[in-house]
Design goal:
Layout (H helix, E strand, L loop, with lengths): L2 H26 L17 E4 L4 E3 L7 E7 L6 H16 L6 E7 L7 H9 L6 E4 L2 H10 L4 E3 L11 E3 L3 E4 L5 E5 L5 H14 L2
Helix pairs in contact: 2-5
């Protein structure tokens, strides 16, 4: 990756981390952000799942959502993170039924429902894949403070890679942001974080 792309990516990840950290601090202090009445992370969306069905954030209410943004042509980071999510949920046993894992593509140009379906099936029966138009994907990425872009040295045509932030988001049954886990989180740590959250909720 060229030095300029690395610097841009690092700056984007830093801004995401600062935004999430600030929101978490407000939550711990019992305050809501004063600039608006909505959370800084998450919000309404309308996308298409791997079965070609239109879904919105309302379809996931009542369960925790474990959300990761990536793309199916990703060579290493995305499959690694999805494997971590799958392994963590397996460690929870029956409690995992309270959590819906979600993979949102940041590459709608290639990741159609037909491409997403066999891909998400590689990570077990729980995972839902979501795609949409470029504008729809851009909208949910903005809501979740996700950085993504075609890599500066990518080849023309369909053979390209994507730069993107690698954060796992946990959203509550009410659709509000709960916490985030960075790329370095392993399955055991993620399972612990999820278990603590589940135990603290009714």
């Amino acid at each position: 990756m060229p030095r300029q792309s690395i610097l841009i990516f690092a700056a984007a990840v830093l801004l995401i981390a600062l935004g999430l950290g600030g929101y978490a601090l407000l939550e711990r202090q019992g305050h809501q952000p004063q600039s608006s009445g909505v959370a800084l992370v998450g919000g309404p969306f309308s996308l298409t799942n791997q079965d070609g069905r239109r879904v919105t954030e309302k379809d996931f209410l009542g369960k925790y959502m474990l959300v990761f943004f990536g793309y199916t042509f990703c060579p290493d980071v995305c499959p690694t993170e999805l494997q971590v999510m799958t392994a963590a949920l397996d460690q929870l046993g029956p409690e995992a039924d309270r959590i819906q894992p979600v993979f949102v593509t940041i590459d709608p140009e290639r990741d159609t429902p037909q491409v997403l379906k066999p891909y998400v099936e590689n990570f077990g029966p729980r995972l839902t894949g979501l795609t949409g138009t470029p504008d729809e994907v851009a909208s949910i990425a903005k809501a979740y403070r996700v950085y993504y872009a075609k890599a500066g040295n990518s080849a023309a045509g369909s053979d390209y890679i994507m730069d993107h932030s690698s954060i796992i988001y946990l959203m509550g049954p009410d659709g509000r942001f709960v916490k985030h886990m960075p790329y370095t989180t392993d399955a055991a740590k993620l399972a612990q974080e999820l278990k603590e959250t589940l135990n603290a909720s009714p």
